[in-house]
Amino acid sequence: MVRLTGLSPSAKRLEHWADGLGVFGPIIFIAAGVALNCVFVPIPVLAGAAGLVFGTAEGTAVGVVVVACSATVHLLIGRHLAGAASGPSSTCG
User: Fold this and answer.
1) CB-hemisphere CA count at 13 Å for 2?
2) Residue 3, SS3?
3) Do 33 and 66 meet the contact criterion of CB atoms below 8 Å apart?
4) Rounded to whole angstroms, how far apart are CA atoms 66 and 55?
5) Of 55, 81, 82, 86, whose CA is between 20 and 30 Å from 71?
6) pLDDT per position as a tens digit, 26-66
7) CA geometry: angle at 18 spanning 17 and 19, to 5°?
8) pTM for this one?
9) What separation in angstroms does the CA of 60 have from each of 3, 8, 50, 64, 68?
């Protein structure tokens, strides 16, 4: 992919990019991470990228949010595609 696009960002460039976005950096990363996971980019790759871009502590938090949001989106996509065959959303009561 790097050869096709000509892009070869270093770790420092990624950190600088995320710092330049300020408080919107993690929000943009979460949205992009969920979208990428929906097109089959593995979660460990996204979690590693979050750690690289935001550091260990913030990257861990961002990675956990990406995992939770991705699971929710996958559930909603599955329910939408299954339609009425998916049954009730709750088995309680």
Assistant:
1) 3
2) helix
3) yes
4) 15
5) 55
6) 999 999 999 999 999 999 999 999 999 999 999 999 999 99
7) 90
8) 0.80
9) 29, 24, 7, 6, 12
